[in-house]
Amino acid sequence: MLVAEDIKNRARELGFDLCGIAPAGAFPELSELRHWIDKGYSGEMAYLAKTAEDRSDVRKVMPSAKTVVVLGTLYNTDRPYSTEIEDAGEALISRYAWGDDYHEVIASRTKALCAWMHERHSLSPFESRVYVDTGPIQERVYAQYAGLGWIGKNTCLINSDLGSWLFLSEVVCSLSLAPDSPSLDQCGSCTLCLDACPTSAFPEPGVLDSTRCISYLTIEKKSSISPEQRDDLGSHVYGCDVCQEVCPYNATAPISDNPAWQPQPIFDRQRLTALWLRSDTELRNSIKKGPMTRVRLKRFRRNLAVAMGNSGSREAQLALNVSRTRSPDTDSLDEPIVAEHLVWAREKLSGVP
Ligand code: SF4
Ligand code: SF4
After folding, report:
1. Would you give the end-to-end CA distance of the chain in angstroms?
2. Strand 236-238 vs strand 67-74: parallel, antiparallel, or unpaired?
3. Which of these is catalytic: 6, 101, 133, 280?
4. Which of 29, 32, 40, 248 has the smallest CB count inside 10 Å?
5. How many CB atoms lie within 10 A of CB 115?
6. pLDDT tens digit string along 288-339?
7. What residues make up the domain containing 48?
């Protein structure tokens, strides 16, 4: 016999910070995805439209599902928030992308929990699936129903004690387990995240227009960034954390000492120019080591060029001009998408004395 409390105890032993149980229900929030896509807010993320039906209920993918065990892992580190950094020459990279690839680290831990559940329930086999971010499951909705936190006006899952720097993962299973109570919204009258967004990407509280969001523009958008939107990127080269950083629930968020989430030296408070002057091989290897593997090198170079153009600095102007003489191992500069944004950045910096 396996009960919810046993699973939560084992999850703690495996290093998870949060564990809760949600029933595999068709919650009303799950149907909002379709309307959101129909409004055009998903931009070039065609995979969302393709999997929208599957994402409307975990039982579409696994008809026997009765329970979703939702797990949360804190990844906050001791580095300052981007909103505290005044130097426009420093590369801003989303906090979650600094360390090892969480898909691998969290998947192995979640699979270990799932294997343990099967072992403990071996006399009565059950069906299960493990997800970490990438599967057709609306993780935050199940996390809210599992009592891990509420979905804030910034669309992130927020836990009142741990904040929102959380990786989520799930074991969907055909076992019936006692569910937790859903979390209640604790945003109240606060609007700090909506007011702080540099691109006004929230048409209404809790609704994100991805096509205006810096995270989408720097990570998901494969094509050219429109000249009007390039200025909005500021120094962000991969993702944006502003709407989480200003959240009062992250003001005193605890720090994780897990080595997996500490920044790789190459991405640890680096200057834009230092990254730009790296060879393709160095950048490609570092990108592959962490979750940034989602962007190919050419997109990362595109973002770097834009951020350097925005920096308005002589240092960036010089570094971009070094590229004219070409260091070895920088073939990515010939990619049309990089070349286009590089021309724009040089032009933008042309007036810098
Ligand atoms: S991630 Fe940045 S750009 Fe996107 S909604 Fe949040 S604050 Fe706005
Ligand atoms: S900043 Fe305020 S409104 Fe936004 S998610 Fe945090 S508590 Fe909610």
Report:
1. 73
2. unpaired
3. 133
4. 40
5. 12
6. 999 998 788 999 999 999 999 999 999 999 999 876 566 778 899 999 999 9
7. 4-78+96-173
